[in-house]
Structure formats: C-alpha cells, structure tokens
C-alpha cells in the first residue's frame, strides 16, 4: 500500500467494524477505528455464528480462540410454545460443518467482541480512538473529511482515503451521506436474559438450540459462555418502541407474554433474571449506499430483523466482500466500494425479506399454525437444512471462484 495513501477510517468498533478493520489491516492498510463509546463493551447476550459467518472468522485465524469460547450445538429443536410438543428437529454440529465446510457456533456477544478486540489490538496497522462521534462527512473527490466530536466536547477533523460506516442501525454516517430515512419499527420487541445452565428447566437443558413457536411470539435459547449459561430471547408483538438499546425490561411485560407458554417457560418470569429489552427495526438498503470513498456496512446499511439470526453474520459477510473488492481495485477505492455495494445489495434484501417472512411463520395463529406444524413435522432434519442452504452455504465470491477453479 503506497505510503501517501491516507489511512482508512472504520466508524464503529462493534463486531462488523472490528472484522472489517482486521481484514483491511491484513491487506497492509493503515486503519483507524473510531468508536463513540469510551468503554469498549458489547451489550446483549448471545449471537449465532452460522457457517456463512464463521468461515470468514476462521479465515482470519480466529478458529482456536473461537473454539475455546463458543459452543457447537448438536441440533435445533422446534417446539410449540403453548403445548411443548416437539414439531421438528434440524441437525447442527458436525452435520452443519460437513455440509457447509464451516462450524455453526453460538457464543456470548461479549466473548466474541473481546476476541475480535484482542486481535485488533495485536495488529500494528490498527489504531483505535474511543470517545469519538462522527458528526459530519464531506466527500472531496477521492478523499473524505470527517467532522468528529470527542467525549470531552472538543472538535476534530480527519481525512481518509477510505471510510467505512459500521456504526449500527442508528448510524451517524448514513444520514451524513444524504439518506434521511429513519429505521422502521416493525412492531416487535425482544426480551433477553441469561440463566445458569444448572438452573435451567429440563426443557431447555442440553447442547441444543431451542425454538418455541406461539401465537404472536416465539422464544429462542442456546448455551453460551462455554455452556455455563443459557441465553434466552423472547420476541413478541409490542405497541410502541423503547428508545434505547438494551433497556431494563419491566418484569410484568415478560410475565404477560410467558403466561401463554408451557409451565417450564412461564416459570422463568418468576425468577430473578436481568431481563433486557430492545425494539426491532429494519430499513431497506439504499442503492447505492455509499458516496466516493465512503460506504456503509452491517446494520448501518441494512438493518435486519432477528428471525433468521443473521444481523451479525451479514456484517461479517459484508466485511469479507468489502476487503475482497478493495484487493481487486487497490488504486480505485470508489470503484471498489460501488462494486462491493452492488454485490451485497441483493443478498441483504433477500435476507431482510426472508427474516420478515420467518417472523410471520413463527407467530402464526390457528388455523394457519396447525398447517405450519403439520408441514414441519413431515420434514426430515436434512430437508429442513436444505431449505437454508442458500443462507448457510454462502462464501465470499472471490474465494468461492478460486476454490472452484482449483477443483
């Protein structure tokens, strides 16, 4: 990389931003990570790393650290929330790895964030600046100038030859590029908590991912923290949205929703768990979603509902494609960014639409739910897995093409 090239700036040190910074630094680019928070901690409990995401992290050399921290569930078990009846199973574990060439991991978000952060701190090409909020972006040919406000209220200006807005659903980079749209509240909220594995009800025990389907709601659980904790996420219809991510939940709301569940689940509302709540938004990606040497990534570009557990995975996919397109056009950053955006647009839209459809199916009321349950009960685990091959089988196009050429 020429010494005269202005540094790359990645805005946001979450999972997508850290993955992007690592991939760019491995190409020899100098990267500055700007993070508005002064403490680099990840909110939330669990995240699912399906093969389309885990293969990127494995290629980054993070497999040993992830293997130590993550859990590989044996199977997905789908049940009725109201009756507890088992509706379907889908193999995970070694079946998933054998079919798609990469593991299906579940991990505590803080653990994933920490290992990415440790890797970034070990990269000489990455510099981190915390307590920095981007307040404006000006594009001048092949360079961009960022107006930055520090946590202490001072103003800074930074120049970069590449800017990646990875600053989440409420991105400050996106409106600075002229997209005045706001994320759309979709009428759902998610409540999450963790429970020690030894204290979990029998119905939630074991090395599985559990999915419970009910009218207007569903519940997901899986082990995290090397199996010591069970991550629980309840998603249900909610009038109005909460203003902050990871807000303290009202226990009465959790109890009201779980009252319709089997006793083992409804009893969770009686426990002293630290329930947190956030509202669910998405937003169709603009076309293109960048300008000049500036682009967006992850939720800043295409926030997605969690009904496919693909928000973090999409951000990791974005990072891989962005790095590949930049490697292919090292001397024309704007062209590389437009190629990246064009490549990612159809995939992002597909996942967004599939997530919305999954939400509709998960939350069906009778009689449609009876038909859904009948269809699911007649599907083999392999048939269920085949339905998601388009999702889990994804790999970075340039690496896929190289693999096919070698074959």
Automatic annotation (TrEMBL):
Enzyme class: oxidoreductase
SUPFAM superfamilies tied to this protein: FAD-linked reductases, C-terminal domain (SSF54373), FAD/NAD(P)-binding domain (SSF51905)
Organism phylogeny: Bacteria, Pseudomonadati, Pseudomonadota, Alphaproteobacteria, Hyphomicrobiales
Domain FAD-binding, residue spans: 8-353
The entry's keywords: FAD, Flavoprotein, Monooxygenase, Oxidoreductase
Pfam family for this entry, one: FAD_binding_3
Organism: Chelatococcus caeni
Cofactor (UniProt): FAD
Gene3D superfamilies in alphabetical order: FAD/NAD(P)-binding domain (3.50.50.60)
Protein name: Salicylate hydroxylase
One term of GO molecular function: FAD binding
Its EC number(s): 1.14.13.1
């Amino acid at each position: 990389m020429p010494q005269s090239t202005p540094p790359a700036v990645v805005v946001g040190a979450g999972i997508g931003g850290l993955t992007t910074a690592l991939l760019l630094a491995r190409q020899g680019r100098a990267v500055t990570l700007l993070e508005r928070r002064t403490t680099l901690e990840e909110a939330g409990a669990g995240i699912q790393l399906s093969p389309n995401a885990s293969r990127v992290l494995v290629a980054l050399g993070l497999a040993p650290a992830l293997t130590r921290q993550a859990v590989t569930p044996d199977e997905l078990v789908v049940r009725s929330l109201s009756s507890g009846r088992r509706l379907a199973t889908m193999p995970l574990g070694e079946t998933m790895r054998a079919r798609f060439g990469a593991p299906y991991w579940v991990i505590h978000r803080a653990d994933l964030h920490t290992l990415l952060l440790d890797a970034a701190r070990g990269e000489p090409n990455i510099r981190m600046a915390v307590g920095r909020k981007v307040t404006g972006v000006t594009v001048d040919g092949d360079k961009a100038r960022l107006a930055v406000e520090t946590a202490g209220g001072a103003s800074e200006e930074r120049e970069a030859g590449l800017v990646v807005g990875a600053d989440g659903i409420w991105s400050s980079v996106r409106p600075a590029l002229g997209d005045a749209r706001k994320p759309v509240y979709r009428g759902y909220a998610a409540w999450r908590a963790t429970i020690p594995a030894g204290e979990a009800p029998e119905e939630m025990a074991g090395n599985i991912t559990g999915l419970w389907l009910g009218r207007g709601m569903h519940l997901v659980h899986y082990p995290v923290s090397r199996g010591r904790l069970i991550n629980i996420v309840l998603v249900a219809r909610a009038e109005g949205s909460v203003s902050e991510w990871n807000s303290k939940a009202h226990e009465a709301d959790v109890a009201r929703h779980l009252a319709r569940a089997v006793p083992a689940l409804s009893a969770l509302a009686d426990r002293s768990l630290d329930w947190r709540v956030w509202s669910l938004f998405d937003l169709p990606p603009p076309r293109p979603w960048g300008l000049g040497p500036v682009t967006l990534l992850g939720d800043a570009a295409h926030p997605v509902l969690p009904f496919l557990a693909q928000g973090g995975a999409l951000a990791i996919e974005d990072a891989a494609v962005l790095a590949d397109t930049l490697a292919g056009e090292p001397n024309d950053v704007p062209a590389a960014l437009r190629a990246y955006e064009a490549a990612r647009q159809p995939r992002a839209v597909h996942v967004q639409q599939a997530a919305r459809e999954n939400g509709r199916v998960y939350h069906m009321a009778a009689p449609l739910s009876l038909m859904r349950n009948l269809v699911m009960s007649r599907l083999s685990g392999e048939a269920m897995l085949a339905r998601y091959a388009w999702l889990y089988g994804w790999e970075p196009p340039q690496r896929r093409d190289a693999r096919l050429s070698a074959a």
